[in-house]
Design goal:
Elements (H helix, E strand, L loop, with lengths): L3 E3 L19 E6 L6 H10 L6 H15 L10 H16 L18 H9 L3 E10 L5 E10 L14 E6 L2 E7 L14 E2 L3 H7 L14
Parallel strand pairs: 3-5, 4-7
Antiparallel strand pairs: 1-2, 2-6, 3-4, 5-6
Helix pairs in contact: 1-2, 2-3, 2-4
């Protein structure tokens, strides 16, 4: 599957879907294969420089998930729901089905997958979403949602400025490349909020989380 690149702020529509100020900090959007494995493909486009290695990304994530499924990645709910969600995540990460248009449970979950990616590759993850809802009145309501996920276990300080950035628009993921200064630093922009589970997990599992709270770097 081919990767389509978008760099023109004035002509490429995808730029309007990202709520970042200033938008000039975005160097490019990359549209990976649209087989509904696009979330994993977008991650692979970054970490492997090749979207075709998305199955490798799933395998990497599965190792991390299995190691911490009873702690950092355990959902807060009844035992029945916890077991159900655990099996669903394992099925998602073990699947090599392509395309998987008919099974949304195999898709990249915006709720838990970003944190697994962050702790698998020891890099921050920024998750952007563009959501359109049609009200009963027929009015269209647009929401721009975004969260920042920081590794809980380990991260090299040099990697704090190398986020894996994803944009979800109408069930399709794009990989987002930020512009850098001549010295290699990311250009400044309005950062998203830290995901709501970060502090809870650090409080609940102090022996697993790194003593350094990497969120202070952002």
């Amino acid at each position: 599957m081919a990767v389509t690149t978008y760099r023109n702020i004035k002509k490429d529509v995808v730029f309007i879907y990202l709520n970042v100020e200033p938008i000039t900090v975005v160097a490019a959007f990359y549209s990976v294969g649209a087989d509904r494995n696009c979330g994993f493909r977008a991650v692979s486009f970054d970490v492997n420089q090749d979207q075709a290695k998305w199955i490798t990304v799933k395998a990497d994530m599965l190792k991390t998930y299995l190691k911490y499924k009873d702690t950092l990645f355990k959902v807060v709910d009844t035992d029945v729901v916890v077991q159900f969600e655990e099996q669903r995540m394992i099925k998602r990460l073990q699947s090599t089905k392509s395309p998987c248009l008919d099974d949304l449970h195999l898709w990249f979950s915006t709720f838990i997958c970003p944190q697994i990616v962050a702790d698998t590759y020891e890099r921050p993850v920024i998750m952007y979403c563009y959501v359109e809802n049609c009200l009963k009145t027929g009015e269209k309501r647009i929401n721009h949602e975004s969260q920042w996920y920081v590794p809980l276990i380990n991260m090299q300080l040099a990697d704090s400025s190398k986020p894996i950035t994803l944009l979800l628009v109408f069930s399709h993921f794009y990989y987002v490349e930020f512009a850098h200064t001549p010295k290699g630093h990311m250009k400044k922009f309005n950062k998203p909020v830290l995901n709501m589970d970060h502090q809870r997990l650090r409080n609940d599992y102090p022996n697993l989380c790194n003593p350094t709270d990497y969120s202070v770097l952002f």
